[in-house]
Write a structure and sequence with these properties.
With 941 residues, this protein is of the alpha+beta class. The protein is 28% helix and 26% strand.
């Protein structure tokens, strides 16, 4: 049918209409039907792994930074890069220690490779690699043996879910792969062995394989006419039933396609060009044995999904695999594009109603009341029909249930529980969504593309335009989750209709997702509950989605980069930073009161605050807000530094003094502590030296009015001297000093104050210990004199400072807990702490703890001249030449590490020469993570 010429627009108008709209075509989505592989993996250390566009290499990117690195491929691949394709399978272990990828071969066998990570996220070394025969390439892979997942309860406490997947107690790692030959391979490395072992088992027929049995060599798939190969596969791990003995059972789903054998293709090629001419050549008897030609319609994807139950067992000595194929799932959808498993744990038994009289009898009755674990298989299909219009998109859900009592040898059954058509929109990729334990609501996140849309008009056209949305679909009915938003999918304006995502992977905390298409890699915000903040009830802040995500990330020791990214967005209210941190502290205290184990400390929470404040400072456009967030970030890092210095002195302390083998390392720590104390005492002097004891009601309660002193305005020395570092940073008037300066948190918060007093006591004791010794060697004399000069030139009496800080701890602990948590979440003192803060400042400034001339005037300033004299030095922690861990000087000739959270640099873990075992033990604590909790990355000093 042709359009009516009377109703069709003119040629000029048609061009104008096309310029204002974009349209999708069926060929834009055909790569999904062809199962073109562009894998992506997002590790728990917030590293995104993607394949190189054209070479057999893996690219790694540390999110949210733009720092990229390259994973070195095996020599067999590097020496013949033209013979291998980019990896079509990439998977990383949950502990971020292992990485696997498969490189398909071009007319040759493929190569699977296993890497092991070093201390930094960009250091990967090849542990082993092996060849995979043609017709037996890897289709999917996953690491097993992960720790049980943490979840939050309504009261703020945390608990672990049941075991998810098989247990592997004596192997690390344990890798499962599904091959094109419908086989399951298990690669594992025993903790006491150096070589990787493997087991192989069929997935299409019952099979049993044990570690002590002789392995049968791979038998390539055979067939008289076609070769049936697995094209896609998915692993489905099931939560263990709490009322049944734990068994390591999981599912494998497969979709197959038939391909022509080489003999069939050769017969077709030989006969297609037969001209009927006699060449008087002897006949080839082998031609008679060639298989007959087949209809090309038989070389298509099978319209069924095969299921197989797998049991991975360990009897204390050997590992074994048992496979039992299940009844396949038949579905008329011609093109399968996605299928993923989504598991829901069973309900936890109520301990308050535990049986007393007859445990076994009550246990059976309680079993009927508890909800068992659920497993869903979500599959999406595209129907291209006659390839004349956009494909029709459909998504279905099957419930994988255990048959009770077991029906013969088939213990599982698949039942269709959800079916939804999305046309005219097209579903491209899907991934498991968030899981609510309280409501036991599971979701699947799908990316849905529009069939077309309008382009922005005007001269200022946007760089990216929305082409679809991400939806959270509830299981099993596949309805839209009403509690979640629908983030837009953006794509460049010049590629609106030909850049659909081919794969997607959620971030460690399921807040973001990385989608990979044929031409680009994008990061999107996953659907989440609508952001609310400013709740009047402080006791419920731990129930906020971002607070729960932060709690679980800290308990699981995962990266919080995706959480910090969400909190740094301009669309996120600034009050949400306080609410998320406050809710995390509430959960921490609830666990302490209940006697539950916490995998994180309050210092870890402050380390997360460093990342959040720095991310917020990068996103804001206001200079004053940027400086305020940077000040909060620096002070949060100082809290972590004080805690680290305290632990170092504790580890190096002996019964009668300190281990003097790392004397220079301890002096470096002491130098940093004294410099930090000097900045803190200067702030106290500016707040109390000229303060009026009676508050001025005409001003804010957090500000004090200094007494007016006669001063020569033309004297630059006095003008700079009377300006504190905080005033210089914020350009405030020298006559107004705020009590909510972040550095003052160390004087009012019980944890920060206790750590500060402890580290001051160690520095004072270390100083006295060196002063009481007689140096016998030149190096010892230098060390002793350096420490004595450090303390004498500081203008501080460390013993008096220690006593004043000790007396302030009980008063700081007496402040209500809500106010204490609020100050920790805000990063600075709150009004409820001002009176105690003023009292502590008055004690410090009116006692002999501070020698003001020595505090403000240093010998180096006198040497440089009065014209350059200033009361403000570089803020503590901002020196790029200082090691963020050891507080020593960085050596330019040695390789260093860069913290991805605080931006600090360090050389821990390198060659330290002859050093104390105590100091080496303390340094090993920071070999993998910075003092703020951030991951290391290699960086040039």
């Amino acid at each position: 049918m042709y359009p009516d010429a009377r109703n069709s627009p003119s040629k000029g108008k048609a061009k104008q209409v096309d310029a204002q709209n974009w349209h999708s075509h069926w060929w834009d989505f055909h790569p999904l039907a062809d199962h073109l592989q562009r894998p992506v993996a997002w590790s728990n250390a917030s590293t995104i792994f993607t394949p190189h566009p054209s070479q057999p290499l893996i690219l790694g990117r540390s999110f949210p930074s733009s720092k990229q690195f390259l994973i070195v491929s095996p020599d067999q691949v590097l020496n013949n890069s033209a013979g291998y394709e980019p990896p079509n399978v990439i998977t990383v272990s949950s502990n971020d220690h292992w990485l696997f990828a498969y490189f398909p071969g071009r007319d040759r066998d493929g190569v699977g490779c296993l890497w092991q990570r070093g201390n930094s996220i960009d250091k990967w070394t090849i542990k082993d690699y092996w060849a995979c025969e043609r017709g037996a390439g890897v289709v999917n892979a996953v690491f097993v043996g992960a720790e049980r997942e943490w979840v939050t309860c309504p009261d703020g406490s945390t608990t672990r879910l049941a075991q998810y997947g098989p247990l592997t107690p004596v192997s690390n790692p344990t890798l499962l792969t599904v091959t094109q030959a419908h086989q399951l391979n298990v690669y594992f490395l025993r903790t006491y062995a150096s070589a990787v072992k493997s087991l192989t088992c069929s997935l299409v027929q019952p099979c049993y394989t044990a570690e002590n049995m002789s392995q049968i060599a791979h038998d390539p798939p055979r067939g008289p006419k076609t070769s049936r190969l697995c094209s896609v596969a998915s692993f489905g791990f099931i939560f263990h039933d709490r009322m049944r003995l734990a068994e390591s059972v999981f599912m494998v789903a497969m979709r197959s396609r038939r391909y022509p054998l080489s003999d069939t293709l050769r017969a077709a090629s030989d006969t297609s060009h037969d001209l009927g001419l006699s060449l008087d050549m002897p006949p080839d008897n082998q031609l008679d044995e060639r298989p007959p030609l087949l209809d090309w319609n038989s070389y298509e994807e099978e319209q069924m999904i095969e299921l197989c139950e797998v049991k991975l067992r360990f009897d204390g000595l050997c590992m074994s695999i048992i496979t039992a194929p299940l009844l396949p799932i038949y579905h008329p959808g011609p093109c399968l594009t996605n299928f993923v498993f989504v598991s829901v744990p069973g309900s936890k038994p109520d301990t308050s109603t535990s049986p007393k009289a007859s445990p076994m009898k009550d246990k059976e009755s309680q079993r009927g009341q508890l909800e068992l674990p659920k497993t869903y298989l979500v599959a999406s299909f595209l129907d291209f029909e006659e390839y004349a219009s956009l494909p029709k998109s459909r998504i279905v859900v099957y419930s994988i249930v255990r048959v009770t009592p077991p029906n013969g040898k088939i213990p599982w059954a698949a039942r269709l529980v959800g079916d939804r058509s999305l046309s005219p929109r097209i579903l491209t990729v899907a991934t498991p969504g968030s899981l609510s334990i309280t409501t036991r609501k599971a979701t699947v996140v799908v990316a849905v593309t529009n069939p077309g849309g309008s382009l922005a008009r005007g001269a200022a056209k946007p760089k990216d335009i929305p082409v679809g949305n991400l939806f959270a679909l509830q299981l099993p009915d596949l309805s839209d989750d009403p509690d979640c938003d629908h983030p837009s999918i953006l794509t460049p304006a010049n590629r609106t209709s030909n850049d659909c995502p081919l794969s997607i992977f959620a971030s460690p905390n399921k807040l973001l997702a990385c989608a990979v298409s044929m031409s680009q890699t994008s990061v999107y915000t996953l659907p989440r509950a609508w952001i609310t903040s400013g709740s009047k009830d402080l006791d419920t802040l731990h129930r906020l989605p971002l607070a729960k995500a932060l709690i679980i990330a800290l308990q699981s020791r995962r990266s919080t980069a995706d959480i910090s990214h969400i909190l740094s967005l301009p669309s996120t209210p600034a009050t949400m930073l306080h609410d998320a941190l406050y809710g995390t502290l509430t959960s921490y205290e609830v666990n302490v009161s209940l006697g539950n184990a916490n995998s994180f400390s309050m210092v870890d929470v402050m380390g997360t605050a460093v990342e959040i404040y720095r991310a917020r400072a990068r996103q804001t456009q206001n200079d004053d807000e940027k400086e305020r967030y940077l000040m909060l970030s620096r002070n949060a890092l100082n809290v972590c530094s004080v805690s680290a210095c305290f632990s170092a002195f504790e580890d190096c302390k002996e019964s009668e003094g300190y281990d003097l083998e790392p004397v220079w390392q301890l002096i470096s720590l002491s130098t940093w502590v004294v410099a930090f104390l000097e900045d803190l005492m200067k702030e106290c002097v500016f707040l109390a030296d000229w303060a009026n004891p009676t508050p001025n009601t005409s001003r804010n309660s957090n500000e004090v009015m200094p007494k007016e002193e006669p001063m020569d305005d033309d004297n630059p020395f006095l003008r700079n001297l009377l300006k504190s570092p905080f005033q210089q940073a914020t350009n405030q008037s020298p006559h107004s000093v705020s009590l909510n300066t972040p550095i003052l948190l160390h004087l009012v918060h019980p944890l920060a104050l206790t750590n500060l007093r402890a580290v001051v006591a160690h520095v004072s004791s270390f100083h006295q210990y060196l002063a009481s010794m007689t140096a016998k060697r030149e190096n010892s004399q230098f060390a002793r004199d350096t420490m004595l000069d450090l303390v004498s030139s500081s203008g501080l009496d460390l013993k008096v400072v220690e006593d004043i800080l000790s007396s302030a701890i009980p008063e700081a602990s007496a402040i209500p807990g809500e106010e204490v948590k609020a100050s920790f979440a805000e990063g600075h003192p709150v009004p409820a702490q001002y009176e105690q803060l003023k009292k502590t400042i008055r004690l410090l400034t009116t006692s002999s703890a501070i020698d003001r001339p020595r505090l403000f005037i240093k010998s180096s300033d006198l040497v440089d001249g009065f014209a350059n004299l200033s009361a403000s030095d570089r803020p503590v922690g901002d020196d790029p030449g200082m090691d963020v861990v050891t507080k020593g000087r960085l050596l330019t000739q040695n390789p260093g590490l860069l913290c991805l959270r605080c931006g600090g640099r360090s050389q821990v873990g390198g060659e330290t020469g002859r050093s104390s075992p105590r100091w080496k033990t303390w340094e090993r604590m920071w070999a993998v993570r910075c003092i703020c909790g951030g991951s290391w990355m290699s960086g040039n000093i």
